[in-house]
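Title: Comparing notes on inverse folding

I've been comparing how different people in this forum approach sequence design from structure. To keep things fair, I'm posting one structure and asking everyone to reply with a full sequence. Here's the target:
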């Protein structure tokens, strides 16, 4: 599919994970492709300010935490200290390697890389910030997300840290209030706490990680409190104050008005799609609130314009953005054989300690959709390898179809949950039932064998249901 009527067959806005995946797929399909990105640094959120730098910092915090807790295993370190400057330098070194490789891929790609910003003049024309215009038969919007605006304008007076600016800190504050209870909020909260910062987490809803089941979120809250992190849930943000020595957040909690003071406030109340400058109305692209609306083929309301990644606003997850970008490009190249995004195997991971990971159906979603299910769980603190590791918090949980026993979903809260969840991803991909998982050989003692316990319990329940 190639038409000389336009400058390109497909023009892609944004060179992050979703946009790069779309460009690579489009080129492989023989499409004349332009990839447009005017950001100061190329690489995308995941590499530059998201997944990779934060996980580098979290791993450093884990090493420090294990060292400080050496006496649990009879190890007596004479003294433990850290060099925060070196922690941040190593993070920068790791990210530079990733970013350099991505820039190499972008520079060597068989698409045309255009270093400019763009907005729609009409549904087939982009006006670029370098003064040029280009036309294209199709577009893929993959412009990512930006820090969400503050619900309280007064927060601007506090000069809050964000997930962007915190990565550039040169020294640690003595104390910090973290506003928010999502993945970004909790990962940064634990990182700072393990490096000696007095941390308070403030969350509006009744539990942190409101996208997960309540039992999973509660385990993380308990673990945080055991580490000395103060956690307030079920709050309402009332106001802010700034003094010469501290920043104060005023909240309502359990009917009381509470003033919380800290040296720094970390604003972690989410991100929003980065679409404000695109003039989408000129292209006939519908939005819902602040996200681009797409169908399962990743098409917007303008059938020749597709979208992928955070700008679609539903799942701000890198591997989902990549899938969406690839599907958009394939559907542009082969419209007679359209592909759909399949969210049955949606994976989510939060890299706190304990980690929390899930795939597929949650209990909350099953109840909301009135879907029948069976469930069973098993705690890590009663499991051999976990006891060796002194794991005190967490569990695994499976959901299964009451009739067939097919695995519908899984949750893991505990050590290496982000890795362990992939066993359930593989099982669900092959539509295994709990009977098959229960009889699958697992080496002992390993963390992975814990999945067999809820599987065995559910297999018995399914067998009784059949009788």
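Reply #1:
Here's my take.
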């Amino acid at each position: 599919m190639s038409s000389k009527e336009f400058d390109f067959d497909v023009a892609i806005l944004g060179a992050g994970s979703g946009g790069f995946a779309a460009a690579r797929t489009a080129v492989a399909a023989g499409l004349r492709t332009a990839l447009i990105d005017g950001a100061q640094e190329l690489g995308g959120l995941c590499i530059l300010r998201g997944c990779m730098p934060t996980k580098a910092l979290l791993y450093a915090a884990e090493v420090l935490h294990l060292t400080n807790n050496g006496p649990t295993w009879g190890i007596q370190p004479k003294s433990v200290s850290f060099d925060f400057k070196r922690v941040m330098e190593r993070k920068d070194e790791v990210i530079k390697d990733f970013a350099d490789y991505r820039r190499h891929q972008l520079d060597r790609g068989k698409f045309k890389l255009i270093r400019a910003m763009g907005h729609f003049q009409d549904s087939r024309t982009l006006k670029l910030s370098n003064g040029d215009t280009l036309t294209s038969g199709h577009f893929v919007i993959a412009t990512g997300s930006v820090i969400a605006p503050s619900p309280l304008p007064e927060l601007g007076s506090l000069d809050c840290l964000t997930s962007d600016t915190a990565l550039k800190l040169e020294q640690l504050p003595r104390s910090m209030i973290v506003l928010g209870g999502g993945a970004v909020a909790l990962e940064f909260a634990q990182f700072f706490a393990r490096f000696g910062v007095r941390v308070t987490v403030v969350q509006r809803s009744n539990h942190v990680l409101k996208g997960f089941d309540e039992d999973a979120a509660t385990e993380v809250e308990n673990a945080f409190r055991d580490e000395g992190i103060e956690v307030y849930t079920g709050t309402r943000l009332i106001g802010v104050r700034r003094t010469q020595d501290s920043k104060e957040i005023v909240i309502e909690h359990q009917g009381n008005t509470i003033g919380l003071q800290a040296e720094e406030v970390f604003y972690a109340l989410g991100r929003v799609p980065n679409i404000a400058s695109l003039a989408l109305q000129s292209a006939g692209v519908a939005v819902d609130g602040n996200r681009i609306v797409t169908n399962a083929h990743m098409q917007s309301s303008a059938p020749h314009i597709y979208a992928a990644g955070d700008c679609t606003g539903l799942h701000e997850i890198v591997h989902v953005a990549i899938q969406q970008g690839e599907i958009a490009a394939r559907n542009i190249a082969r419209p007679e054989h359209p592909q759909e995004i399949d969210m049955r195997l949606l994976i989510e991971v939060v890299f706190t300690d304990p980690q929390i990971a899930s795939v597929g159906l949650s209990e909350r979603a099953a109840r909301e959709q009135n879907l029948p299910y069976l469930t069973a769980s098993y705690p890590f603190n009663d499991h051999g390898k976990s006891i060796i590791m002194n794991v005190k918090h967490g569990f695994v949980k499976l959901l299964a179809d009451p009739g067939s026993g097919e695995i519908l979903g899984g949750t893991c809260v505990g050590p290496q949950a982000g890795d362990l969840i992939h066993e359930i991803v593989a099982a669900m991909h092959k539509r295994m039932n709990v009977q098959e998982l229960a009889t699958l050989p697992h080496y002992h003692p390993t963390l992975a064998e814990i999945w067999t316990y809820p599987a065995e319990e559910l297999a018995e329940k399914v067998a009784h249901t059949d009788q």
